[in-house]
User: What shape does this take?
Amino acid sequence: MRVILADDSVLIREGLASVLREAGFDVVAQAEDATSLIQAVDAGVPDVCVVDIRMPPSHTTEGLIAALEIRKRHPTVGVLVLSQHVETYYAMQLLGGGASGVGYLLKERLSDVREVADAIRQVAAGRSVIDPTVVSRLIQRRRMEDPIETLSSREREVLGLVAEGRSNRAIGERLFLSPKTVEAHVSSIFSKLGITDTPDDNRRILSVLAWLRA
Assistant: This one.
């Protein structure tokens, strides 16, 4: 399997190249910046590129931009991005839109050669690999941003029945709740979803739309 490595640290590049060769990979090129990485890929299309997110000259997003450009130019090339820290925004940039053949790992994983080698093979096979720590942070971020996550299990049940077009009375009969209790749940749902009472909008419809989007 042909691999190109890109990292501005020569120690990381050489160290990773050494262990990958021992694991049976063919490290065909190394790059110290995004420009030389893209040139190396264009010159000899590899199976996978292993790219650091932060590269010269600004050490911000050059590696990520290069990874996205490589995917655009060579869709069959797998890209495994390495990051020193959990950066959920960059992870979403890379993995958004149902992307396949991409991966995002924290550099701390480099100490486990088997894990890195497996990630490269997964990416080369067209699968996506996400660092468990990044997955946890993405889930946490979604919970913070998605008001549906604030609903209790009972409120979710009630909202699901609202989505079926059931009245408060019908919901109460289905869940064995009093009409007053159902009304309290519905009111709480509206409040948590930030749906205010206006003359032009049907709050039940708006709540169902929020539920469907989630």
Remarks:
- Residues 132-145 form the longest helix (14 residues).
